Sequence to fold (191 residues):
Amino acid sequence: MKKPDGVILKILLVAACLLLALSSPVMAKEVKIADFAVTNNRDDLLVFFSVKGAFTREMVEAIQNGIPTTFSYFVRLEEDKILWFKKKIAAKSFTHTIKYNNMKDEYVIKRSWDADKAITTKSFEQAKSLMAEIKSFRLTDLDPLEKEHRYIIRAKAELDKVTLPFKLHYILFFTALWDFETSWHSFKFKY
Fold:
């Protein structure tokens, strides 16, 4: 009788790991945008929000193994009209990227809307906050906004696809387990 091939055993092992991962309560956790707020200074419209539930156990392990991880954010400002097409006033996208340096035991976070300035911290909790919180993001100047008009801001976040070093692409299959994409969050306000 012929023994099972090593490849078949590997496939069965991968399938078993996948089933265990999919049945994990962590996978059922919803990733969403929360704590949304809008304000203005003298010249600009500023947006604040955060992403809740983005850091799964698998993602944390990947980050701590040195895999760069990027969140992409999309924010749109439109006039809030009921009977007409909503007029787009501004649309912006930006990224937050984290990379762990295990030689120095520190996290480096770069935020594209903050001039890609590298922020370094040894605290993973602070690194997560820097990745998931948007504070004082300048969406647009105030010139296009009209007094007493209603507006709506929509925002969403997603994990960028991970690019792994050569020979580690077989892990790419597992990175899909910690992909996320929030639904569009809407926030209405009167200027």
Residues 63 and 100 are 6 Å apart (CA to CA). The mean pLDDT is 82. The longest helix spans residues 6-22. Helices lie at 6-22, 57-64, 124-132, 172-175.
